[in-house]
Amino acid sequence: MKGMTVIVKTVTRWVKVFIFLYGIYIIITGHLAPGGGFADGVIIACSYILLMLAYGREFALKRLSSRAAHHLDSSGVLLFLVVALLGLGYGGIFFGNFLQTRFPGVAFKLLSSGTIPISNIAIGIKVAASVFLVFIILSVLRIVLDEDGTQKMVQDEEEE
Amino acid sequence: MIYSLCFVLFIIGLYCALTKKNIVKIVIGLIIMEYAVNLFLVLLGYRKDGVAPIVEKTTNPLEFLATSVDPLPQALVVTSIVIGLGVTTLAIALCIKLYEKYGTFDISEIRRLKG
Amino acid sequence: MGIEIYLLVLLIFIIVGALIAVETKNLLSAVISLGAIGFGLSIAFLFLRAPDLAIVQIAVEVILLIFLIRATIGRDVISAKGHIHWAGLVVICLLAVAVFVFGLFAFRSLNEFGAPIIASVQDAPSNKYLQDGLKSTGAANIVTAVLLDYRAYDTLGEATVLFAAIIGALAVLRGRAASRRKGSRQMGSPQAGSERRKDK
Predict the structure, then answer these.
(1) Considering CB atoms only, which of C56, C73, C152 is closest to A84?
(2) Do B89 and C50 touch (CB under 8 A)?
(3) Domain stop point among C81, C105, C129
(4) Which residue, of A2, A45, B46, C93, is most buried by count of CB atoms within 10 Å of its CB?
(5) Which pLDDT score is estimated for C189?
(6) CA–CA distance, B18 with C157 (Å, rounded to integer)
(7) Least confident among A72-81, B78-87, C120-129
(8) CA C88 to CA C94: how far, in whole Å?
(9) Domain of C172, in residue numbers
(10) End-to-end CA distance of chain A
(11) Complete domains list, chain B, with CATH
(12) Phi, psi of A146 (to 5 degrees)
């Protein structure tokens, strides 16, 4: 039997949505309120880890496979670099905030401050994917007791 | 006074990393040292009766300049915390590898087995 | 005055938690004490007017506890035992005390607590960030403005370091899984398979 009891599963079904929503709220208001890419990435990874702890490994991997996590991890960094190179191309400065100098938005609005929200999203995707990836790798291991009382480490079946 | 208490925390982590024989304890010592350094950097930027470095709509710019805490250490510590998570993960992975190879967390056993 | 008292109480709480985490025999207790340290640190960040750091610290602490408990401790609690030789212990204690004393000398050159460097040095970079951070980047959160605009190189380096650490962890554990599978197939060990099935 995979996963935990039905109580945990029912609670998880509701709570995971709110954790994910909180992560999205933090990422899109990262330039106006406390938060930003790093906190957001870890919180979104939290929601997936909760899913995996409650429902078991296969269920979570069906939602976000480890290959997809690899791709998200790399594409986050790539998006960040593309923003930096666009700043070099349009503004003449690596990491220059070219959007803000061309179309200065109204301060304290959601769509303002140029490239900063895009960079926030890139960093968030990268951190979330990499933390989830590490949890996938670490979760195949556990320490169990043999019949003769010695501790040993086993791994679940690795599916490719 | 507060600085020296923060330094005491660092010394506790150093002592743990140097004297313990269990690998997980050594990793815990490293984490405590990292926390102490992060806290020290943020303590350096604190201003008495300061406000958080976030501009509100009603904020007077000159007053904000005179009362806000230092944003630079905070920005560096944000990255430092996440890097700490990555490095600790690497340390845990090495612990698991050693446990799988030698069957123990005790570093003196591991040294003895190496010969 | 108020905030110093709160900070002192919090720091003493953190130090007691650290002592318990270092000295307890039970690894599970040590990891839980580490969680207490992390959450105390998060409250300290809130008192120090750093809400971004408090959010990040809470989230990272939860993930770290899950990693430590699930990966290194598992279902059965391993107790930590064994001490190093007493001579080595004495030497290390002397070293720690010496480092502490020299550190106290070094702290004399710092400013008083509550008087940061930006208050005494007028053209410090942080003053510039605070002064026209909103105007030139449009971000109300100055920490985000510093992180992703003024000092985005640091963030790029951070992403690289995180990437390297994650790849390192993946490489270490992937190699283990591959060698184990190959080994069990070569020896054709029926033991390993049956044990694995039994554990489930």
Answers:
(1) C152
(2) no
(3) C81
(4) A45
(5) 39
(6) 30
(7) C120-129
(8) 10
(9) 161-188
(10) 21
(11) 2-114 (1.10.287.3510)
(12) -75, 180
The tens digit of pLDDT for each residue in C75-110 reads: 455 666 666 778 888 988 899 899 889 888 888 888
Q: Does residue C141 form part of some domain?
A: no
- Whether residue C92 contacts residue B21, with contact meaning beta carbons closer than 8 Å, is answered with no
* Token code pair at residue C1: 């005055």
- Residue C26, beta-bridge partner list: C79
What value does the mean pLDDT take over residues B60-86? Answer: 87
Three-class secondary structure of residue A115 per DSSP: coil
C177, part of any domain: yes
Closest chain C residue to A101, measured at CA: C136
Using an 8 Å Cβ cutoff, are B5 and C15 in contact? yes
Six-digit token string for A36: 């930003």
- In chain A, what residues touch C138 (CB-CB under 8 Å)? 31, 100, 104-105, 107, 112-114, 116
CA A13 to chain centre: 19
Give the residue with greater pLDDT, C190 vs B9. Answer: B9
User: B20 is written with which tokens?
Assistant: 């313990």
Would residue C131 be called left, alpha or beta, if left means φ above 0 and alpha means ψ between -120 and 50 degrees?
alpha
Kindly state the average pLDDT of the residues A2-8.
Answer: 79
Q: Which of A45-59, A133-147, B57-71 has the lowest mean pLDDT?
A: A133-147
Q: Does residue C56 fall inside a structural domain?
A: yes
Contact in structure between C61 and C70 (CB atoms under 8 Å): no
Q: Could you read off the pLDDT of A101-154 as tens digits, one per residue?
A: 777 777 777 777 778 888 889 989 998 998 888 888 777 655 554 444 455 555
* Residue found by looking up tokens 């790029």 in the block: C156
Q: Does B43 touch chain A (CB under 8 A)?
A: no
**Average pLDDT rounded to a whole number, residues B82-100:** 87
Residues in C closer than 8 angstroms to A115, CB to CB, are 148-149
Residue C35 included in any domain: yes
Q: Give backbone dihedrals phi and psi of A144, rounded to 5 degrees, phi first.
A: -125, 170
Question: ipTM > 0.85?
Answer: yes
Is C172's CB within 8 Å of B25's CB?
no
On whether the CB atoms of residues C72 and B92 are closer than 8 A, the answer is yes
Q: How many domains does chain C have?
A: 2
Q: Cα distance from B59 to chain A (closest Cα, Å)? A: 12
Which has the higher per-residue pLDDT, C32 or A115?
C32
